[in-house]
Each structure stands twice: as C-alpha cells, then as structure tokens.
Amino acid sequence: MRELSLNVLDIAQNSIAAGATLTEITVEEDTAADRIVLTVRDNGRGMTPEQVRKVSDPFYTTRTTRKVGMGIPLFRMAAEMAGGGLSIESVPGKGTAVTATFVRSHIDRMPLGDITGTVVALIRMNPDRDFRYVRKWNGREFAVDTRELREILGDVPLDTPEVADWIDAYIKEQTEAILAPSSGEGPEDVPGN
Ligand SMILES: Nc1ncnc2c1ncn2[C@@H]1O[C@H](COP(=O)(O)OP(=O)(O)OP(=O)(O)O)[C@@H](O)[C@H]1O
Ligand SMILES: [Mg+2]
C-alpha cells in the first residue's frame, strides 16, 4: 500500500524545484476530531491563480522530461478517497502552501508511513536549504528547525551522517514524547504503536 509520507516527499520536492530556501512540513493528528492534516509550505517562486487551477489537472506540468505531473493530483486523490480534500494557497514570488486533510479512521485513508525518514532524507539531500518539521498530536506538538540546528552545529554540515542519525533519533524521541499515555492510542509513526 502506498504511504502518505511518499506524497509528502513528492510535494516537498516541488518546493525544492520551485527554489524554496525554507520548506515547512506539518503533520497534525487529532483523534477526537478524527482528522489528519498534512501541510507543506514553502517560500519558493509560487504560482499564479491560473497555474494553481491547472495544477489540479494531471496533464499540466512545467517539467520538460515528462508530460504528466502527478505529485499534486495523487495527493489530492489520496485525500479525497479518505473523505478529505486538498487545497493550494500560492502567491507568485512569495510561496506556496499545499494542505491535505483526511478522515483519520476512514477505511481508505493510507497510513502515514515513515514521515521521520522523509524529513531526514530531505534534510540530508538538501543540506543548503532549511526545513522546519512540526508534529502535532491531540494538542501537543514539537518542532525541529534546521535554522536552529545550524546554530548549534556551527561548521558541521547537515548532511554529515552522524548529524542525520541524530536528527532521526531526536524526531523519534520527540514524537514518542507527545504521545498521550492515557489514550492508549499513539501517533502512527512511532514504531511499536
Ligand atoms: N510548491 C510549488 N511552488 C511552485 N510551483 C509548484 C509547486 N508545486 C507544484 N508546482 C507547479 O505545479 C506543477 C505540477 O506539480 P506536480 O507535483 O503535480 O507535478 P510535477 O512536479 O510537474 O511532476 P511529478 O511530481 O510527477 O514529478 C509543477 O510542475 C510546478 O509547475
Ligand atoms: Mg511534483
């Protein structure tokens, strides 16, 4: 089965292709509202309203290597199939936010998959760009921001294997920490839940 983390990777790669220097990924789970909201927000070149309209059409792409762009249509399909939807907010020269919502318990809602691995891979593959990852679970949240990590790391690059491993471990630890002990139901991307 496909995983939503792969869609998030696709959408974040659009941000990188759009020249974003900062990409923010937010994963929000609310069990009472039975909702998952995934957002990818960037400060890239943005799109005109006409481009935004066309982007929902799988035959629209600015790629030259292949005619059909599937990143956004597939993400939209995953959301609609799970009782939710996708929205795009974009301002030319300012940036873009893609938000997908899902009914958490919907039978056709794909699993989140390895969001931590996706975030770590994006950081490792793009050490000169900044990423902020925000994980929310039933009102609790944490964030990891490469702009802050850079200050701590000094001259050590973000694609150093030890640094990537540390970020990976940190995100997993923080994700576990926002798990509400009383509910017996944890965030999906924590191994063992
Ligand atoms: N964050 C973004 N900023 C600016 N333009 C974007 C952004 N995301 C998408 N676009 C525009 O929308 C088009 C369609 O995106 P989509 O991900 O659906 O397909 P693609 O990236 O062209 O191809 P694929 O994802 O299949 O490799 C892109 O080619 C790009 O022109
Ligand atoms: Mg794409």
What do these coordinates show?
The chain is globular. A hairpin with a 3-residue loop joins strand 3 and strand 4. The chain has one domain: 2-Layer Sandwich (Heat Shock Protein 90). It is 35% helix and 24% strand. With 193 residues, it is an alpha+beta fold. The chain has 6 helices and 6 strands; from the N terminus they run αββααββαββαα. Magnesium ion binds next to helix 1. Magnesium ion (MG) is lined by residues 10, 13-14, 69, 71.
- Helix vs. strand class: alpha+beta
CATH fold-level name: Heat Shock Protein 90
Name the hetero compounds present. Answer: adenosine-5'-triphosphate, magnesium ion
CATH superfamily: Histidine kinase-like ATPase, C-terminal domain
N-to-C order of helices and strands: HEEHHEEHEEHH
Q: How far is the first residue's CA from the last residue's CA?
A: 19 Å
List keywords for this structure.
193 residues; alpha+beta; Heat Shock Protein 90; six-stranded mixed sheet; 6 helices; 6 strands; 35% helix; globular; binds adenosine-5'-triphosphate; binds magnesium ion
Question: Any chance you could write out the topology, listing elements then pairs?
Answer:
Elements: H1 4-17, E1 22-30, E2 35-42, H2 49-55, H3 71-81, E3 85-91, E4 95-103, H4 115-125, E5 130-137, E6 140-145, H5 146-153, H6 161-177
Parallel strand pairs: 1-5
Antiparallel strand pairs: 1-2, 2-4, 3-4, 5-6
Helix pairs in contact: 1-3, 1-4, 4-6
Bound molecules: adenosine-5'-triphosphate and magnesium ion (MG).
